[in-house]
Amino acid sequence: MVGMADVPSLASGALTRRDADGWLPRLADWMAESRTHRVIVLVLAIWLLNGFDLVFTILAYQQGLLHEENPVARQLLRQGPWSISFYKIAMVLIGSYPLLRFRAARITELGALVVLIAYATLAVHWSTVYEIYALTGSSGLTIAELDRLTGVKTY
Length: 155
What we know:
- The protein has a domain at 34-121.
- Helices cover 77% and strands 0% of the residues.
- The chain is built from seven helices and no strands.
- It has helices spanning 7-14, 23-33, 35-62, 71-79, 81-101, 106-139, 143-150.
- The model is unreliable at 4-8 (pLDDT under 50).
């Protein structure tokens, strides 16, 4: 099993040296070296997309665009942005632990990829929500009129 010995090679500055290769090809080589490296990058991407989800959830709730169906998250949103932020950060950290702990296993890489795809799909959904919101806010169109114009069912 591979331990944390892989991480210092990334943090030691090997990727920041300005030489003929550049840092991007070095990063690609580092990721291709082993499954543990790819899982670390996938988990970092999951954290990033989860942060975007958190920000958009808070904004949409404050703007009245969101009715949260998760009863725990709904209660936390009512208490304020700090409580939902703490909850989401804690859940992501708890969920990341098994991915990082067992990062050498093939199933872990697959699991991290599935979670990343789910969050990427959610990011596309948020993008669509805000596009519809921008259309209705700037043009004076109602949701029903948007349905007829775009042919896309909105909720």
